[in-house]
From TrEMBL:
Ranges where the FH2 domain occurs: 495-934
Record-linked SMART domains: Drf_FH3, Drf_GBD, FH2
InterPro entries, alphabetized: ARM-like (IPR011989), ARM-type_fold (IPR016024), DAD_dom (IPR014767), DIA_GBD_sf (IPR044933), FH2_Formin (IPR015425), FH2_Formin_sf (IPR042201), FH3_dom (IPR010472), Formin_Homology_Diaphanous_sf (IPR051412)
Pfam families in the cross-refs: Drf_FH3, Drf_GBD, FH2
Start-end of Low complexity biased regions: 493-508
Name of the protein in its database record: Diaphanous related formin 2
Family to which this protein belongs: Belongs to the formin homology family. Diaphanous subfamily.
An MF annotation (GO) of this entry: small GTPase binding
The species this protein was found in: Cyclopterus lumpus (Lumpsucker)
GO BP terms, alphabetized: actin filament polymerization
Amino acid sequence: MDQASGGDDPNKPSKKKSSEDEGKNKKLRDRITSFRKTGNKKEKPLIQHPTDPLSYQVELPVPQPLFDDRSMNLSEKEIIDLLEKMMEDMNLNEERKAPLRGKDLSTKREMVVQYISATAKSGGLRNSKHECTLSSQEYVHELRSGIAEEKMLNCLESLRVSLTSNPVSWVNNFGHEGLGLLLDALEKLLDKKQQENIDKRNQHKLIQCLKAFMNNKYGLQRILGDERSLLLLARAIDPKQTSMMTETVKILSAFCIIGEENILDKILAAMTIAAERNNKERFASIVEGLENHEAQQLQVACMQLINALVTSPDDLDFRIHLRNEFLRCGLKKILPELKETEELDIQLKVFNENKEEDSIELSHRLDDIRVYHLLSNMVKDTGSEAYFLSVLQHLLLIRNDYYIRPQYYKVIEECVSQVVLHRNGMDPDFGYSKRLDVDFTHLIDQCVDKAKVEESEQKAAEYSKKFDEEFSARQEAQAESQKQERESKSWRGRSSGSSTTTSSPTSTWWLSPPHLLLPPLSLGTLAFHHHLHHLLLLAEDPRLLHHPLGAGPQPPPPFFGGAGGPPPPPLPVIKLPYGLEPKKTYRPETVMKRVNWTKIVPQEMAENCFWIKVKEEKFENPDLFAQLSLCFSSQSKVLKCLFETLRLSESLIQNLIKNLPEQKELNALAELKGEYEELVESEQFGIVMSSVKLLRPRLNGILFKLTFEEQVNNIRPDIMNVTFACEEVKKSESLCKLLELVLLVGNYMNAGSRNAQTFGFNISFLCKLRDTKSISQNTTLLHFLAEKCEESHQEILRFPDELEHVESASRVPAEILNSSLATMERHIQRLENDIKNFPKTDDQQDKFVEKMMISFFMHSREQYEKLSTMHKNMQKLYESIGSYLAFDPHSVSVEDFFGELANFRILFMEAVKENHKKREMEEKIKRAKLAKEKAEREKQERQQKKKQLIDMNKEGDETGVMDSLMEALQSGAAFRDRRKRTPRNGKSLKNTVFMSHSYFLLFLSALPV
């Protein structure tokens, strides 16, 4: 730094010539601005910055003597304060302020005097703060007042000059209200449908004002903090206005390389929304700007924005996606046609180099394998092959239309990219509308898990069904073999012994008790028994369904004693008042529902009463009565059930038995057979049912027949489950090894105690393994054993599959099983006794004994003997398990033993799953830690890169932020300095194979159909 005048005495008056004064003034200015010079850099055109004194030195007045009265009147404190204000206006950081603070007082005085002169000329005198604020507020007032277009143009031009020439403090004062007014004005002009030439010029001036406003750190932060700014700038990309579009595209390019978080996503979102307003693709305007060969600066700016957008993402997939989107918009066709210029060549070189590096990185990711071969090998002989083939076949079905086919492929490509890139959130664009925010990952994982579960369940069900059938057949065959063996022994014993005489069982006829007086019977009970005789016959022979039921029960047989005595004497006739005649008596064919009205007797009516004069007979009509009988018959529901039911149901039989009167009551009803015609239908039904012999035994037999198969189906699975479980426990090798491992661990842990050197342990201890916690309290002994089994003893992990039936066996109550078999035996024995004691009958329709003896009794006896044999074998097998595992099977029930095993099986499987989750969580934490460290490193690199970009400007001057960023873009130094990677095995990029139409058809034909 030049220190030539550093030793002059400030108090001595200057007597040098004018030329010497000018030379010293120049040296002084050089001394003031020397900290921004870069001596070892290539000489570049001077960029004027808002607070650089050189930027407005041409406007300085004729330099005054260095040591005039003003410099003499400033105290040391005032000089220091003014120096701090000067450095603040210049937006210098502490590192740049330190050398200036270290200057001697004379140098500081000279810099302050020069600063005062410059700011006074620009109208922003720092020692006149009111004048500065007033000037910025005048622009705010002009913008707010809605001035005319011509006047606005002049105002915006003046504002641009002021934003460029005034210090940061002036920009700060204007920005509080002025930025919003500038954005409002720009939005109003952009929304205008028919834009005049003056409107376009005003738009351009507004963009220039915004650029000047953000050419410092404060203004840039304000612009990025306003949500409308990016959208309005994106809307201002208009290829018809080349100058404005050039400025706008450069600004957006600078935004891309700032390094702010999510800035790229915000810019892409703004461009997407702006394109949707014009019904265009979001990059169409940028590509259209490249086609304007007359505007070379616009072409350079568009290529800068393309490079800034494509090279900014760190993710390879997203970079390729953005580049392909530009190529689809027409960039591929335009690139070869661009005229080569020095500035444009730099941008094209950046684009091609990054494209080549991405291709090399992609080829490394694919390991230089042809993409079709890769996909073919990935899906071959897997469940994905059919779906992949279907996708390719559907692609062939796309309509062969010059305009339609590209649109189909465009939609398909966008959908696929949404699916495969959604995990990283790298694709914010789908159909150029709002982002498709669907969690495809969860959906795919759920589909995979569901498919696995369905396949496993289907196989398990098939194997289980097949195994159960074979095992059940084996058990039944074993029971049949034992039965045949017993019968063989019995015949051999009979043949060797003396012959025995058999006597046929004597049949005893049921004798009715003496006739009793008729006890009181409710009408509801008698109505419930209506048609019982017909139902009993129907249960024995369904052919009786063809007999008509609507005619009511058959007339009863002739009763004993003839007609039953003389009829009773007639009742006396009551005379009705007012000449009324008795009402007609109606006899419906069916019992009707009753109308619940309050009956008024004639004696309560007055002579002029309405009811005296009514003649309802005039409405009498056979059709009316028929419809009433059809709609309001009380027997309709009963008859409907009768016709819809082929046989008596279990519940109906149970209700009949429950509500059936005792036999003595039925016998008492039989005494009223002489009055059959005078009785109501329910009482007639009771008289008919009294003629059915052994009614209750019949019903009990029918009920047992209806419930027998259900009882068998309830008992057999329980027996089979326990038998299965017993055999699985005895045959499971993995369970044996697990018990050995537990015994080893237990003896080691119990060393020195009374439980040491144990030969065996009770099975109930297995569930207690979970209660033994580790020292750190974060695992249990069960989890420890499960982990060791996974590490060294994989075969033990199969024991839950080998003990498949222990859970179902744990739900089998042994006492209830024994009781069910005993109950079945009692019912069979009672049915046998009833059949033996059943009296003979001449009724051809009564086939109760025949059907019960032939079709059911023998079958039920055979089934019971099989179940009994299987149950005995089950008990023997369970007793052998007790001997095998050293426990008393009589004191430990089946439920308790298999319940312990089932609980341990579940706990062991849960421990294995929890160990897996624990390892996955540890891996996840480890990956997250590595990812966090990587993200921190990348963040630091981005911050360092951003700092370097800003420091690329002249030393210490941070006010020309946008100028420095645009200079970095223009030179190509702002783009990603990505690490060059050489392809493996010495292969170059040209060996990387891309898709071709002919190869696509060849690959498709090679796939299996």
